[in-house]
Fold:
Amino acid sequence: MGDSASFDQFYRGTHKRVLTYLYAVSGDLTSAQDLTQEAYARAWQRWSRISRYEDPEAWVRTVGWRLASNRWRAAARWLSARRRLGPPEPVPGPSAEHIALTRALQQLPAAQRAAIVLHHLYGMPVGEIAAELGTPEGTVKARLSRGRAALAALLSEKQEETAHA
Structure:
């Protein structure tokens, strides 16, 4: 039997038990599925050697357990670091102007919005935007011009609504 066929047979015959074991030790099905997949991927890479073991399933279980242990240790180190650093500084919410600009940008056609964001927020020149979007420079310039005009109108409408409120 070829390596691929023997591994497939091994996988079909053992993966449910390994998944159940890793689910029991990790307490999380999604994590157990990830661990199981990684353990079998590593087994496949070494299958020509592992297939000759007396109990290849034990090797996969051990790898899964070690992967889970490594995750727990990494999580513990992360929590320890977070405790040393203390709570994060409070981040102020977005300003009214930021919210108004975001809402106005959302109302623009996607092509105009992309050109505006790349040019004004990323600071990209027209030539780079044209290359990234795969459009001629003239098209980018037109989108920027139309987008700015539309933004000006949308933002002035917002200011008028705020003034009347």
User: Anything to note?
Assistant: The chain has two domains: 3-85, 96-164.
